[in-house]
Structure formats: structure tokens, C-alpha cells
Write a structure and sequence with these properties.
Layout (H helix, E strand, L loop, with lengths): L46 H14 L20 H7 L2 H4 L11 H18 L3 E3 L5 H18 L7 E5 L5 H8 L3 E5 L9 H11 L3 E7 L11 H10 L3 E6 L11 H4 L3 E4 L1 H4 L14 E3 L11 E4 L4 E4 L16 H14 L3 H19 L15 E4 L1 H4 L5 H10 L6 E2 L8 E4 L7 H20 L1 H5 L12 H6 L10
Parallel strand pairs: 2-3, 2-4, 4-5, 5-6
Antiparallel strand pairs: 1-7, 6-7, 8-9, 10-12, 11-12
Bound molecules: pyridoxal-5'-phosphate.
């Protein structure tokens, strides 16, 4: 791997060739007090060199197109290119969100039909497409919970129960809506501990507004007691919230409605194939059961038999949660993906589950598997055995990069020490899975015989270890000339 030479500036080089002598700031009549006193410090490069610079940077990027990307809980599946093409059609990209309904019938029809498809997939009665990500969907869902109990005159319902295996956004979203978080433990099977849950309901009774769950949960395990949990919650007058980030495991096989949930968010960018990572854009639609239909954010898209329209008059609406109609391009891609798959959405889930179980069965002989059972679309290993040799999960992840694989999610969920969370998705074939397993086995053996080689990884990436804390606290992306 050649070292990247970031600094390409050579004094006097330029990428622009503007010949017009009249082109000076004075001629534009700017107020002189806004003019620079000194020349800006910019790199001086030709157009070609600037282009090569950005191409080199993009070549260093790792993506699904460059290799296997088993980032657990993120569903980094292949995103068919035809979706990109369709989302970039002029008829979609040249729309203005303030255009009248009659001028944008095609876009509204697409949104309406996507809502209908998501209703069918989730079993919910109504859907909003406004949310811009999963976490945003959660916020929307929790606002609905809050408003529902306000309207129903039960302001004492201030607590939300969340499993200890939950994604961090769950307690964050509930917390932002002013709820107090009550943690329910997981049992030895990696599922919600029913005895503990019953105790909590016994203890807090009508103070409990909702329980938030992911199913399959973040360990990739199906919550077998979900129907019973739903009965307990509903008997108590509480609502059930479904974090749909793991929907990729159950499409067409079961749905959140059958499991007893009242509110569902989906991550279109995960389950329904939109490139994501690096900050989006995504989409986090929210579906609700019949009794919560009136609480959705407005507008929702509706159809009166002849025309599609944006509907604003929902009696108990929580208002608007995003400007305009949400991230429309992501909606187009999700709709294309759903149409393309049709009934075979079920095969997506089946293949995702099969791939995960295949890898799990190979790797469990080399790494600890804290919850040894049939998994859903992902599974969680522990690097505990390797840690005894001084090799931590972080180092295993870094070493995988030397073998040209994106690392799995690490140190999550929090209840598994040295966690390695692996989600192969349905996109991968057996050869790729075998190659990945081989690399993981190699690393497990290196941890035994040559731990140093793992500890010093990555060896052949352009950037070695980064200072993550510093990057998060003191991010500075300005160009500064070297030397
Ligand atoms: C990804 C994820 C979220 C958050 O979704 P974003 O779209 O990243 O905001 C929430 N819960 C679980 C289980 C997830 O995997």
C-alpha cells in the first residue's frame, strides 16, 4: 500500500483559468469591510491533480461494493443500482416540496403506495414516512405515546421499560420525551427475563407508559415470550413499541402486529436497501395500530379514489416532525426495492437468517458464543477467549481490515463482554462467507500463536489506529498547509 501524500499544493499552480480582467471584487460593489485583507490559504493544484486527490480518497473508502461488510445491526446489504437510477429521475429530483398536490400526483402516489406496502409488511393500520432515520422514528413513536396518555388523561404514565440489551437510541428517544427509563434484565437465553418484567409491572403498575423492544433483539435472538409480554403490557394499559431495525429477519414470515405491537418504526436504509453509513440520509417511517392513527404527524398521504393528497386534519396529531415530506429519495429507493422483491421479500429474510446461522456454526468453535441457539439475521460472539491471550475485540476488528473485511460491530450489545456482532445479510454467497470465516479462524489462531501481529494491526491500511476520542471531541476538518 503506497502512503497517501495528502499535500499536493505547489506554489503557483492553479485549476482555474479565468481571463476576464474586469472580474475583480471591486467591480461587484461589495462593501469593503467584508473583503479579505489577506489571500486565503488554499491548496494550489491543477484541476487534474485535484480530481486525482479526491479519487484517491474515494479509493480508500470501504463499502459494500468493495467487500464483505458484516456490521451487526446495520444491515449493510447490497443496494441495487437500479434504485439509484430511478431515484435520480428528473421527475423526482426536480420537484419542489411546496408544489400543489395536483402537480405532484406521481410522487404522492409513490408515497401512498409505499405507505400501503409498509402497512402490509408490518400489519399496522397507518404509516407516516416523515422520520429521517430509525432514531427519529423512535422519537416520533415516543411522542405519540406521550400524547396518547395526555389525551387519555393518564399523565402518571411516566415510565418506559427497555431491555438491557437495547440499542442506545431507545432510552435516548424515550428520555428526550421526558420518560423515565426502567431497565428489564435479559435471562440466560438472551431474552427478556419474564419474571423480572412481571415484577416491574407489579411494582409500577399504571405508571408504565410503554415497553420498547426489538425482535429479534440485538443479540439476534427471537423473543419467544413476545406474545405474553404484549398481553401483560396491554392488560396494564401500556403500549408496546417495536424498534424495527431488525425487520430484515422476519419479513413475510411474521410481523409486529401479530406479535402484539402498537407502534413500529422501520429503518428503510437498512431493511429496504438504501446506501447508508457516514451519516445518511435515511428514512424512519412509523406505523401505528388503528387506535393511534389520529396521532401520526401530518401531513400523511391519502387517496380519495381519484387523486392523491396531503392530509392535515388528524384529530390528535403530534404535529410535524420533519420539514416537507421527509427524505423523499430514500422513499423512492425503498419502494423500488419492495416492488422488485414482491413476495420474495420472505426469501430475503430466510437467506439472511440462513447466512447468519451458517457463519455462527463455523465460528462458535473458535470464539465464545455466549448464547448458543438458532439465531435470526445476526449473532454475537465474545472475544473473551482471545482476551486471555491479551488480544481484545478491538484488535480482532482491526486485524480483519488487513484481510480486507469490514469489521463487525464491536462492544455492542453491552451485556456481552468483548462483543463481536456479526450480520452477514442475505446478499452474500457461500464463497464470501467461507472467506470471512477463514479470516476469523486465522485471527483466532494468531491470537494463540502470534498475538503481537494482531495487537499491532492493521498493518496494511492507509490509516492505522485513529484517536477516536480526540476525533470525536476535537474534530477539525479544515485544510491547513503542511510544513
Ligand atoms: C440502527 C438501529 C437504530 C437506530 O437507527 P438509525 O437509523 O441509525 O437512527 C435503533 N435500533 C437498532 C436496534 C438499530 O440497529
Amino acid at each position: 500500500m503506497t502512503k497517501l501524500i495528502f499535500e499536493k499544493s505547489i506554489d503557483g499552480m492553479t485549476g482555474v483559468s479565468v481571463k476576464d480582467e474586469n472580474l475583480s471584487v471591486e467591480n461587484y460593489g461589495f462593501n469593503p469591510k467584508f473583503l479579505r485583507k489577506e489571500k486565503p490559504v488554499l491548496p494550489q493544484v491543477s484541476e487534474l491533480e485535484a480530481m486525482r486527490h479526491f479519487k484517491e480518497l474515494s479509493d480508500m473508502n470501504f463499502c459494500v461494493e468493495s467487500g464483505f461488510y458484516p456490521l451487526g445491526s446495520c444491515t449493510m446489504k447490497y443496494n441495487p443500482k437500479v434504485n439509484e437510477y430511478l431515484a435520480s429521475l428528473d421527475g423526482f429530483t426536480q420537484l419542489h416540496p411546496l408544489q400543489q398536490d395536483e402537480d405532484v400526483q406521481g410522487a404522492l402516489e409513490l408515497m401512498y403506495k409505499l405507505q400501503e406496502a409498509l402497512k402490509e409488511i408490518t400489519g399496522m393500520s397507518a404509516v407516516t414516512l416523515q422520520g429521517s432515520a430509525g432514531a427519529h422514528g423512535e422519537l416520533c413513536g415516543m411522542m405519540i405515546v406521550k400524547h396518547y396518555f395526555k389525551v387519555n388523561n393518564e399523565p402518571q404514565r411516566k415510565k418506559v421499560i427497555i431491555p438491557d440489551s437495547a440499542h442506545g437510541t431507545n432510552p435516548a428517544s424515550a428520555g428526550m420525551c421526558g420518560f423515565e427509563i426502567v431497565k428489564v434484565n435479559s435471562n440466560e437465553k438472551g431474552q427478556v427475563d419474564l419474571t423480572h418484567l412481571k415484577e416491574l409491572f407489579e411494582q409500577y403498575k399504571d405508571e408504565i407508559a410503554a415497553i420498547m423492544m426489538t425482535n429479534p433483539n440485538t443479540l439476534g435472538i427471537f423473543e419467544e415470550s413476545v406474545s405474553e409480554i404484549s398481553k401483560i403490557a396491554h392488560k396494564n394499559g401500556s403500549l408496546l413499541y417495536y424498534d424495527g431495525a431488525n425487520l430484515n429477519a422476519i419479513m413475510g414470515i411474521t410481523n409486529p402486529k401479530i406479535m402484539g405491537f402498537d407502534i413500529v418504526h422501520l429503518n428503510l436504509h437498512k431493511t429496504f436497501a438504501t446506501p447508508h453509513g457516514g451519516g445518511g440520509p435515511g428514512a424512519g417511517p412509523v406505523g401505528v395500530v388503528e387506535k393511534l392513527k389520529d396521532y401520526l404527524p401530518v401531513p400523511v398521504v391519502d387517496f380519495d379514489g381519484t387523486k392523491y393528497f396531503r392530509k392535515y386534519d388528524l384529530k390528535n396529531t403530534i404535529g410535524k416532525i420533519k420539514e416537507f415530506q421527509g427524505n423523499f429519495g430514500v422513499l423512492v429507493k425503498a419502494y423500488c426495492y419492495i416492488l422488485m422483491k414482491g413476495k420474495s421479500l420472505k426469501n430475503v429474510s430466510e437467506d439472511a437468517v440462513l447466512n447468519a446461522n451458517y457463519l455462527k456454526e463455523i465460528l462458535k468453535h473458535y470464539f465464545d458464543l455466549p448464547y448458543d441457539c438458532t439465531c435470526m439475521h445476526e449473532f454475537v460472539l465474545s472475544g473473551n477467549r482471545q482476551k486471555e491471550k491479551g488480544v481484545h475485540t478491538l484488535e480482532i476488528a482491526k486485524r480483519l481490515m488487513d484481510y480486507k473485511f469490514h469489521p463487525p460491530t464491536v462492544y455492542f450489545p453491552l451485556i456481552v463482554p468483548e462483543a463481536l456482532m456479526i450480520e452477514p445479510t442475505e446478499s452474500e454467497n457461500k464463497q464470501r462467507l467461507d472467506e470471512f470465516a477463514e479470516a476469523m479462524i486465522k485471527i483466532a489462531k494468531e491470537a494463540e500463536s502470534d498475538p503481537q501481529s494482531v495487537l499491532e494491526a492493521p498493518h496494511n491500511t492507509p490509516v492505522k489506529r485513529v484517536d477516536e476520542t480526540n476525533a470525536a471531541r476535537h474534530l477539525d476538518l479544515r485544510y491547513k498547509p503542511e510544513g
